[in-house]
Design goal:
By secondary structure, the protein is α+β, with helices and mostly antiparallel strands. It is built from nine helices and six strands, in the order αβαββαββαβααααα. A hairpin with a 4-residue loop joins strand 4 and strand 5. The N terminus is likely disordered.
């Protein structure tokens, strides 16, 4: 009975920095990741805050798939120009050591499979922009296909963004107005608006909003 009480169905998120070994200053990268995780943990719903677990890898636990994806989108935007890969898994999570925050269970196993799948899929030339995959033994197969098709398409849009467009996207996700972003970028608000429409930033934001509402 105690063991059953310790198991709860959640969504686990595992992330890591793509090609992190190329980072010139590893300490600076570590500090940046920690700072971004702290900010996203404060700003968005989370069950167990995302924290660095080993090297450049981090993990967090969320009540819904939408919450986990929203965290992933904001982490990815805030960490640019570093690129990030994510694996998400839904399932039971068992608390092995509450004081030390050590967890295990199907959600983590599914998230681990997902991030490994994301890395393998990105190794294919036609799918090289793949960064996010969701796995779940509990969700209907058709729903898994639909979610991953949406993530694959969103990753393609994000993978085509220029550094400037990424900054605009990050600014919009942070709540900045087009005027604020224009002043920061040294361009006109009209130019920001054109980039939002022409570069797919608006489409990406709407897809993120819709995916963020998933149960």
């Amino acid at each position: 009975m105690d063991r059953m009480k310790a198991e709860v169905t959640r969504v686990a998120l595992i992330g890591d920095i793509v090609e992190s070994r190329r980072a010139g200053d590893r300490q600076e990268l570590h500090d940046t990741v920690a700072e971004v995780l702290d900010r996203v943990n404060r700003d968005h719903p989370v069950v167990d805050p995302a924290v660095i677990t080993l090297g450049d890898e981090f993990q967090g636990v969320y009540a819904t798939l939408g919450d986990a994806l929203t965290a992933a989108f904001h982490i990815r935007a805030r960490l640019r120009p570093h690129d990030v890969r994510f694996g998400l898994g839904r399932g039971a999570i068992q608390v092995l050591d509450r004081e030390r925050g050590i967890h295990d269970g199907p959600a983590y196993w599914a998230a681990r499979d997902a991030i490994e799948d994301a890395a393998a899929t990105a190794g294919k030339a036609a799918l090289r922009t793949t960064r996010t995959i969701f796995r779940s033994p509990e969700d209907p197969p058709a729903q898994l296909v639909a979610v991953n098709a949406a993530l694959l398409t969103l990753d393609q849009v994000l993978g085509a963004l220029s550094p400037g467009s990424w900054r605009i996207l990050a600014g919009r996700l942070s709540g900045l107005t087009q005027k604020d972003i224009a002043e920061r970028e040294g361009i006109t608000p009209s130019a920001v608006s054109q980039r939002v429409r022409g570069d797919g930033i608006g489409v990406a934001m709407e897809a993120m909003r819709m995916l963020g509402e998933l149960p």
